[in-house]
Amino acid sequence: MSKTALITGASSGIGREIAKQLSSRGFRVILAARRKDRLEELAEELEGESRVVTCDLSTREGCFDLYEQVKDERVSVLINNAGFGAIGNFEEIPLETELRMIDTNVTAVHILTKLFVKDFIKADRGYILNVASSAGLMAGGPLMAAYYATKAYVVSLTGSVNRELKNKGANVHISALCPGPVDTEFNEVAGCEFGVGAISAEECARAAVEGLFRKSLIIVPGTGMKAAATLSKIVPREMVLKVAGEMQKRKTK
Question: Is residue 153 annotated as part of the catalytic site, yes or no?
Answer without folding.
Answer: no
